[in-house]
Design goal:
The structure holds 2 protein chains of 2 kinds. By secondary structure, chain A is mainly alpha-helical. Chain A is built from 17 helices and 4 strands.
Chain lengths: 414, 295
Amino acid sequence: MFGSLFFKECRQILKSMVYYIYVVVFVMFLTSQLSGEMTERMEQPQPGQENYGFVNSRRESDIMEKTLAGLAMETSWNSYATYPMGFYKGVTLNETELAEVKSILENCSGRSWEQLTAEMERHYAGYEQSTFQGAMQAQISYSVPVREDLSYEDFSKYMEQVCGIIGAGSDYQTEALKAGVSVPMTYEQAMEEYKALCSKDRITGATARLFCDYAGIILSVLPVFLGVTRCLRDKRAQVSQVIFSHRACALVIIASRYLANVCMAFLPVVLTAFAMQMPYQYHAKTIGIAPDVFAFLTYSGIWLLPELMIVLAVSFFITEMTENVISIFIQVFWAIASLFSAVALEGNFGFHLIVRWNTLGDAAEFWRQRPELFVNRGFYFVLSLVIVVCTVLIYEKKRREGETVYGKIFKSRK
Amino acid sequence: MDTRIEIKDLSKNYGKKQALKHVNLEIGQGMFGLLGPNGAGKTTLMKVLTTLVKKSGGTVSLCGIPVERCQEVRSMIGYLPQDFSMYGNMGAYEALDYLAVLSGLNKKERAKKVPKMLEKVNLSEQHKTRVKAMSGGMRRRLGIAQAIIHDPRILVVDEPTAGLDPEERVRFRNLLCEIAKDRIVILSTHIVGDIEATCENIAVLNHGEILFRGTVSGLLEGVRGKVYTMEVSAMELPMIQERFLVTGILTNGSTASIKIISEEQPVKEAKPGQPDVEDAYMYLMNHASAPAGNV
């Protein structure tokens, strides 16, 4: 019975317009984010190159210098970017507050504000500011040396003072500092990175991570539409009574629907991943590396499948309970909260719904943080199964009592 | 093997409203008609029997199995709800096949039974017609096919002929009679003609209470000798309607031929008439306070 129902559900999904919208939005989102030529960034670095890209550094000296550089720049514009509750908010300080921040900068660097601005101007004048590459290079390479006797603890306290002045959600918060800073890569670092790309990631591993990073964003919301559509279909077609009166148990009905939705929602992910890995497989072969042909599938399975499962499970549960579309709003809120609560675009997985690794490479760091990713995804995998079981219980309750939980709540409020 | 439905002291409350009040019924094999006006509690009773609504009190057993054993009860019943519908984008075959899976039929059984059932309900030629494109009659026929595809011992049909044209209604009644040969079929309706044409055993329900249980002839017996026909002028008609229970009016210009129910001969000109089930039902509903089975 389960197998037949599963295949019938899959066929029904294939007939649904919502499913095709899901596929189109997913593919369009992915292609818009990953259409750039990434193979250029996978070339072996050569000595004497103009730059070797950037790397995330968690060295205290790097963190202090780069953070002060950012603070000096924002202070010179008197415009500070903050993200309270995840959304951008520009902060402009009054004269007293600005003087306080300048004083903090002077204390940290041991230089006067005039000296700092003069050095900043000199640094930026040395780069071609009219091009994106030049501006980027200028920003990444700019740093403010710290006072020799300034400890990291004292620096952190100064940054806490800055946060007190400009408000929450800035780059000067302790969590943001812990996430590290971007610094220019040296040739040696670039070579090390390249070796990891070839040996550990075998090219496709690195691109698969970037694929999962972007796919994870859209998959934190998109599957909810499939879940809600499926659960409301019975109500819309007025078939609940007919289905309830049949022999099939609630577990078989809900599990077959859920599994069919998971499989059908994952299918375009697998196909897109397969299509997107082709150029990188080819690139790997041209530079004499045996690519990991299953990298996209493995990463998608571990990274994206649990996310898709939890989104569908939650949408099934809420929709079966309330019989309305509120699940969509809840999911959008959860996804936004998860996206903006991330302090870093690489790692620090925690228990975020959306896990980020928005860089091509940094393999060594990823492999270091990999167990944390497994814990995160394992948690959501198990949680989704628990929620499906809860959905089965809700479905059976509705079936036996002839009322929805929502209906009961509504009645008791009257 | 027990082939009866036993309902003892059944009650169902929706909050403060009592939909069923201490209902007692015993239903045997064959067609059983459940008659009553809209809101009488027929659908609630059907839903209790089909495990879709939890009873508030009393006991119900179907072929010896208490209704609380939902899974077993669902295996032995077929249910055609009042407004049967299926997913609009499914064809007749596909819809029936889907519901056959839910009834526990395997692939082999379905391949054999689905075409057979479609043929039985005269939908073979429309096996690809989508549910949303079906007429009311076609939908009901599909509904009856899904209700009997797993060969249930009990079939519950709720208002199956409401909204059907006369031809479709007769065809549907005949189909039900054919199905009822070897099982219990409970037909719930407010259309007296359906009961008259198909059922021998009936119960009349009103305000959640059984007003009558017995045979159709028993119901007719209650009104025998109380039906009269007479010719009256159209002017007199409102006055007669006020004084008597009028169950039929046939106007012919300025006169009208009427059928009334009265305990005594209303006027000298009134002639005794032949009672039908509708008369008996109307009489019963007007004497709702009379004891059950003894009207």
